Amino acid sequence: MLKPREFTQNEYEFVSIDDMVPSDHLLRKIDKYIDFSFIIEKVRPYYSEEKGRPSDPLILFKMMFIGYLYGIRSERKLEQEIRMNMAYRWFLGLKFHDPIPHHSTISWNRQKRFKDTNVFQEIFDEIVLLAMNHNMVGGRVLFTDSTHLKANANKHKFTRQEVEVETREYINELNKAVEEDRELQGKKPLKDKEEVIETKEIRVSTTDPDCGFMSRDNKQEMFCYLDHRTTDMKFNIITDAFVTAGNVHDSVPYLNRLDRQIGRFGFQVEAVALDSGYLTNPICKGLADRKIFGVIAHRRYRPTTGLFPKWKFTYEKNQDIYVCPNKKVLTYRTTNREGYREYKSDPKLCGSCPLLSQCTRSKNNVKVVTRHVWEEHKEKVRINRLSNPGKKLYKFRKEKVERSFADSKELHGLRYCRFRGIKNASEQVLLTAACQNIKKIATHLAKLG
């Protein structure tokens, strides 16, 4: 005789939560190998010793870790999942009938208690240090790239604003290099330029003013944030995660974040591999100053249709001249404020040149070729990229940092921003990266036994 299912669902059984969690469950590995007690010390300054009811910040952060580990995007949904999932209860140390912390508890702590604090960055750093303690971080070869997170903002709802163009941090160093180069070439110092505040027009979202409008070739136009991430060669541990608005160029925060890792974790960086967005003169010089072997992808420039590309003009370093395709010389004339040396041709020779129509369209028949004062560092990076070690190193980039981004988006819900505001976006990125590292550390140590 068949027994109706409704009766079996009402039966009482004596079971333990521990028996219901598989022995190879990820949360068992994390609970065994990751000691989260450091969190209590990190958040102690934000809790009152006398006022308020007792609370357990460890449960709060473990709840957030569960959400990021399993890509649960809603705090309300997270509370429901913990109520039903025995592995989640076990991980939090809750019994069958223990109440689940309300989802508003997480929201309140994020928005009030931890607002304008550095606690999420500190937790991320501690996880990196834990990986280093287990010899999972080499700190010698790093891979960096950025990916966009679609902001919680409608791309059609915005205002146009004039904003001041940010002064690059390397501008003082560049000005000094320009003056030294002009002095070396026998040129007079440049006259002091009237300080003119440069502005540009940008789109500002009315929903989330902190995000930026991204408009790139072969990319969907949207309001978004950028996750600038660095991973280590050894076990692909994420060593840095930094958020900017979507309209900030990849190269802007790079050197500062590299220096932060060197200072914070004591890395002895020997080589880095980067995408073409980082191929700028300041970055190439910065890597040379730090004695780092830089490998950066080639950037395809688009020369004017019908004219020779710049690489057709050969630079002769010993004579400090350029030689055109017709074997004529372009000599140095000046170094401008932007840091470019100008080399110009002789219009008398160019006027009768059979290649003039493919060389220049200037009315005075003068061809001008520019060369940055830091161009030699960029050329060194190009040589690195074409070398055998450089080719091997760059191949790892897609297997390291790009794979890390893929895991974040497919498994941990980082394709979209959960919250609005750059502080909240930073929290999401840091905790997602921390969870990826936690999972990698626990899995690796479990294999070792």
Supply Rg: 28 Å
Specify the biggest β-sheet. 6 strands, mixed
How many DSSP helices? 18
Shape label: elongated
Indicate the structural class: alpha+beta
- Content of β-strand: 15-25%
Measured between the Cα atoms of the first and last residue, the distance is 49 Å
Task: Name the poorly predicted regions.
Answer: none
Quick check: average pLDDT? 90
Oligomeric state of the chains? single chain
* Strand segment tally: 13
Give the helix proportion (percent range). 40-55%
Task: Explain how this protein is built.
This protein is α+β, with helices and mostly antiparallel strands and 449 residues long. Helices cover 41% and strands 17% of the residues. It is built from 18 helices and 13 strands. The protein has helices at residues 5-8, 17-20, 26-33, 38-43, 57-69, 75-84, 86-92, 103-113, 119-133, 171-184, 254-265, 281-289, 347-351, 356-359, 375-386, 388-395, 397-411, 422-448; strands at residues 141-150, 158-164, 199-205, 212-214, 222-232, 238-245, 271-274, 293-296, 314-316, 321-323, 329-335, 340-344, 368-372. Strands 1, 4, 5, 6, 7 and 8 form a six-stranded mixed β-sheet that branches. Helix 12 crosses helix 15. The longest helix has 27 residues, at 422-448. The radius of gyration is 28 Å and the shape is elongated. The two termini are 49 Å apart.
Short description:
41% of the residues lie in helices and 17% in strands.
